[in-house]
Design goal:
single chain, 180 residues, alpha+beta, Nuclear Transport Factor 2, Chain: A, Archaeosine Trna-guanine Transglycosylase, Chain: A, domain 4, 2 domains, six-stranded antiparallel sheet, six-stranded mixed sheet, 29% helix
């Protein structure tokens, strides 16, 4: 467990700013205490300072996990967000997409969101902007990247991809075999 380097912090904050903009500060300075990001075994954890101090008493070799895993660095040193960060990103998301009930299952199976499955989209969403995907009953399902801007969505064909899938809450079940 160690603090992130400047390069790692920049990559993490760039990725988070795609989804929550300048609300990153709200993740760190919370009413229930200070939180920070720590690096352990290619993964970035979001943890309170109180729990971080407790985890520091465990050797790195024996420490499996602590806090909430926000994502990991790939072998090419790119940062990839995990679905475990969804509960922290959803309340602060700047851009949101709601999918129709018929398309929820398709998205939860790892497919992209098509125009035919789009319920509504936040106004002024730009192309390639990070979005949080919600069901029509405001349940966060996952996140992705907008393939089209809001203006382009209005004139798009029903089979056009509007949101590229990145992560969803169905990943736990799909990846269960890989964990064992």
């Amino acid at each position: 467990m160690r603090p992130l380097t400047d390069e790692e912090t920049t990559q993490l904050f760039d990725k988070l700013s795609k989804f929550i903009g300048e609300n990153i500060q709200l993740l760190i300075d919370r009413p229930d205490g200070m939180y920070c990001f720590r690096y352990h075994r290619d993964r970035v954890y979001y943890v309170s300072e109180k729990n971080m101090k407790r985890a520091a008493s465990v050797t790195r070799k024996h420490l499996v996990s602590f806090g909430t895993c926000f994502g990991k660095f790939t072998k090419t040193k790119q940062f990839r967000l995990h679905v475990t960060a969804l509960d922290y990103l959803a309340p602060y998301a700047k851009y949101k997409v709601w999918v129709k009930s018929g398309s929820e299952q398709s998205f939860l199976y790892g497919n992209h969101v098509l125009k035919s499955g789009l319920g509504r989209i936040t106004e002024s969403t730009e192309k390639y902007q990070g979005v949080v995907v919600y069901s029509m009953s405001d349940l966060p399902l996952g996140f992705g990247v907008a393939a089209k801007s809001t203006q382009e969505c209005r004139n798009a064909d029903p089979m056009t991809i509007l949101v590229f899938h990145q992560a969803d809450i169905g990943e736990y079940i799909r990846n269960e075999d890989n964990l064992l």
